[in-house]
Design a protein that fits this description.
Layout (H helix, E strand, L loop, with lengths): L2 E4 L3 H12 L6 E3 L4 E2 L6 E2 L2 H8 L3 E3 L6 H8 L5 E4 L8 H4 L6 E5 L11 H7 L4 E8 L9 E8 L6 H24 L11
Parallel strand pairs: 1-2, 1-6, 2-5, 6-7
Antiparallel strand pairs: 3-4, 7-8, 8-9
Length: 194
Amino acid sequence: MKWIFFGTDSFAVTILQELQAKGFVPTIVVCAPDLPLRRNKGFQAPATKVWADANKIETMQPSELDEDFISALQEEVWDLFIVASYGKIISHKILNIPNKGTINVHPSLLPKYRGASPIETAIIDDCKNTGVTIMEMDAKMDHGPIISSIPYTFKKWPTSIAARQILASIGGTELARIIPQWMKGKIKSVDQDH
């Protein structure tokens, strides 16, 4: 299987580690550009770039998901794109490049807690019954059809960092479970109750 992973932070790294443990290694990792450090002390690479470099996996760090980036992706034939905590809106033009579409790991039970901070919002709302959703991506934010939902209940809230780690691990494990079925067309997604 030839696939690209879009993700930037430690949540995404945990998912990559879970996938790698089950034999799923991306051809390319797409992540945000390196960030400048204070006082001109160089640059800090995103967590996924550090992971990819350590595993000798090619990275792409586009500052814009523009026509040049799209053209570069279209030079190859791709089976699947996977997105987890990437940090940028991905256009429909990109989502439709791979043969089996683009799927996303989102740390809430969609449609609840859409958006960029679902874990933090669940903590603020004290909604301990949460989980992870794996969904097909469409042009809207966290809007596409659901492939799988895994409920998880926190008896007591850990730190948001620990909660992210737990939910990322669940998401990565479930993703590894469903990828073979998704690639064979044995799983059907279901529209969200918008």
